[in-house]
Amino acid sequence: MNVGIIGGGQLARMLALAGYPLGLRFVVLDPAPDACAAQLCDHLQAAYDDPAALEELARRCDVITYEFENVSLTGVDKIAEVTAVYPSSRSLAVSRDRLREKTLFRELDIPTPQFVAIDSFADLENAPKLLGWPFLLKTRRFGYDGKGQYLLYNAGDLQPAWQALASQSLIGESFVPFQREISILAARRKNGETAFYPLSENQHQNGILHLSRCRPDDPQTKPAENLIQRLLETLDYVGVMALELFEVHGKLLANEMAPRVHNSGHWTIEGAETSQFENHLRAILDLPLGATEPVNYSAMVNFIGALPELADLLEQPGIHCHAYSKALRPGRKVGHATVRAPTEAALEARLNHLLKLLP
Ligand SMILES: Nc1ncnc2c1ncn2[C@@H]1O[C@H](COP(=O)(O)OP(=O)(O)OP(=O)(O)O)[C@@H](O)[C@H]1O
Ligand SMILES: [Mg+2]
Predict the structure, then answer these.
(1) Is 229 left (phi over 0), alpha (psi -120 to 50) or beta?
(2) Total count of domains within the chain
(3) Which residue's CA is the nearest one to ligand 1's atom 30?
(4) Ligand 1 pocket check for 146: Cβ under 6 Å
């Protein structure tokens, strides 16, 4: 079976690494000559919306998926006539636009921060009446790692925020003073079979995910499953989905969803019976889903901009290194490590050690 992936970054690379033991082959579409998944997959080097390249991808593959949301909808709809694309273009259309996404949350009674469309400076001036201070101005599309966001504290911030972001469609969101950030990942197959992973508890630094801990038996597990289930069913979803949540005084608010494998689920490679990557492939190929039970205790740390010394990492028990073979650049995710341990206390000790190795 040949799997096509739009995007050739680390998520595509880890999908391929999970798929080879199942006998799958991979073709990635990515304009970058040094796309890190291209080291192990066939590479169509062209723009993500290049019609001829998309057509070739569809011709060569049995199923197509994508590793990020900024994929051309018309392109996806066109190739979907030839080869199945999962998650569906509807799932993609909703999740790549923060306004559509939050509107769907509201329709499904999924609590979400207060929000409002910002189409003019007057809308921005009016926003604090609804959102209060401080509030966030975000681009509706193309945001990742906290990019395209402006936190406004008072009226003096309105002009600079507008100047920074007004060239794009925008949304205003109330700022949530959350106690915790968590995410839930689930895999769903066409026949509705669904598997939920244990919750991830996430910490960000400068808007970029820094650390995710697997939290088996977390008290928010059932409430979070209930929320993502509504999205999976409404969208008749196929593949892995992630839902990012804020916990505020024991209540969950949905921040955003991702129609793909997710950074907060990287610990599943070693820390779950079946990884998110393998389950995404199983789901889109309509194969039985694998068990999502945790294997011991685990946590994942991202390597941003630089990698620790490999020898230092490998010296430690329970550390599993993933270097993405990407050029090192400040603010860029270039690898991660998962730590695993038989007890929670041992995990914390190993994690502290790993954090000290970060450059
Ligand atoms: N309304 C909010 N209130 C408080 N903090 C927020 C809010 N929105 C976002 N944040 C913080 O900023 C982080 C990044 O925001 P968000 O998830 O919306 O953007 P993103 O660029 O898509 O990020 P990522 O690529 O990491 O998912 C959140 O994980 C959270 O820590
Ligand atoms: Mg996010």
Answers:
(1) alpha
(2) 3
(3) 207
(4) yes
CA distance 265 to 287: 20
The number of the ligand nearest the C-alpha atom of 146 reads: 1
Distance CA 99, CA 172 (A): 9
Region of 322 on the Ramachandran plot (φ > 0 left; ψ -120 to 50 alpha; else beta): beta
- The pLDDT value given to residue 70: 87
**Last residue within a domain, chosen from 147, 174, 201:** 174
From the CA of 87, how far away is ligand 2's center (Å)? Answer: 19
| pLDDT tens digits, 42-66 | 999 999 999 999 999 999 999 999 9
Which residues share a beta bridge with 27?
Answer: 4, 42
Among candidates 61, 51, 53, which has minimal Cα distance to 82? 61
Q: Would the CB of 180 count as within 6 Å of ligand 1?
A: no
Tokens of 346: 């041992």
Q: Which of 144-148, 173-177, 233-237, 242-246 has the lowest mean pLDDT?
A: 144-148
From the CB of 69, is ligand 1 less than 6 Å away? no
CATH number of the structural domain spanning residue 296: 3.30.470.20
Condensed to tens digits (0 to 9), the pLDDT of residues 337-353 reads 999 999 999 999 999 99
**3-class DSSP state of 347:** helix
pLDDT by residue (tens digit) across 262-294?
A: 999 999 999 999 999 999 999 999 999 999 999
Q: Is the CB of 172 under 6 A from ligand 1?
A: no
Whether residue 326 sits in one domain with residue 190:
yes
One domain, residues 21 and 66: yes
Range of the domain at 154: 114-174
Q: Rounded distance, CA 149 to CA 143, Å?
A: 8
